[in-house]
Amino acid sequence: MFGAVYRRLPSLLMARRNLGRTKVRSILAALGIVIGVIAIASLGMFGLTLRYQITQSLGDIGNQVLVTPGEDSDAITERDLREIEAAAGPEARVVPSKTRITTVRYGRSGSREPSAVGEQRTIQGIENPGLIYTAAEGEIPEPYRSGALIGPDLAEQQDLEPGDAISINGSSTRIVGVLAAGDGFGFASPSNEIILPNREFQSRGYSQVLVSTRSSTAANETAVALRSRLNGRQERVSVQDFSSVAENIGRTFQALNAFLIGIGSISLLVAGVSILNVMLMSTVERREEIGVMRAVGFQKRDVLKIMLSEAVLLGLLGGLVGIAFSLVAGMAINEFIVGDALLAFRPSNFLYIGLAFSFGVGTSLLSGLYPAWKAANERPVEALRS
């Protein structure tokens, strides 16, 4: 394979031999490219990993719209709920919720009765919690008509599990499921939630309604439709659109990635200066050799090709080694931050790897232009005299 390439491009063969004659100097020059490529690719992947981690922690907030009672209303009525469902459309998930503050007492794990010690807590009433929550232990009944669902942190703090009893406002009920971490209602985390069926609440209205759409664009359109439809003459509801939050997060991390890549690029600029120095020294040391080449018939463009080929080979060597180390670094970063090393192979990461490789080869090529031009324009007679 390489033999065929060298036959078609003899300048590459000569460039490889010339670099082999000064191995230590060539390796040191390529090492600068390696460091630069690792810096750009690793920092870019680090920024993407941070963005992924924060996005996962916040959940799909960009796809959500939270509706709460407006200034002119105490609660969201059934009529309001029907209009919200109509404005959201059939593809959206509409989950109304009721809340109240009451006294809660907990039982020990495996106990039949709750303890006598209680505390004031806010509890949620949701008719269909399976639309936004999943169960880590037990189950979320469908339809949900009895029992209690609790958050994972609350279950751990109070040593509770499905089947245990808790007392809510003096009425004992069984835990049917422990919610999985990472789900959420609006911005709320399920970590300390207590959820009951809607039928356990005496109030007719709802305290909030979560609308989950297929995308942030659809969420924004839904928010506009809700404000227009429900807030005509008076502010019946308050609509919070979280798509702007997700967009701000995206813009922030784009700026962070650009900053990190800028820092990494400094390493490649230093590497470019190193290659420029190596190529200039090579030109001076091989002045007589270049004179002989010109004397036996080599044209300026032939000398130019050889010198540029040396610079490109240095960039390719450094770039390939840098990519290998960047992938290892990316796996370590993802394992440490996210807990999954294979996320280093996401397509978005290869964008930064390709950028780093291209920048490395391009830096080498640009650094070799002046030495190559200087060597190509060397006068044969003066070169032979030296």
- Radius of gyration, in Å, reads 33 Å
Spatial ordering of strands, largest sheet:
2-3-8-5-7-6
**Low-confidence parts:** none
**Number of helical segments with 4 or more residues:** 11
Percent of residues in β-strands: 15-25%
Count the domains: 2
What's the story with the biggest beta sheet? Answer: 6 strands, mixed, barrel
SS-based class? alpha+beta
Q: Quick one: overall form?
A: elongated
Helices and strands, in N-to-C order? HHHEHEEEEHEEEEHEHHHHH
How many DSSP-defined strands? Answer: 10
Gap between N and C termini: 39 Å
Structure description:
The chain is an alpha+beta fold. It folds into two domains: 2-57 and 248-385, no CATH class; 61-242, no CATH class. Helix content is 55%, strand content 16%. The protein contains eleven helices and ten strands. A six-stranded mixed β-barrel has the order 2-3-8-5-7-6. A hairpin with a 2-residue loop joins strand 6 and strand 7. The longest helix is centred in the C-terminal third of the chain and has 43 residues, at 243-285. The radius of gyration is 33 Å and the shape is elongated. The relative contact order is 0.19.
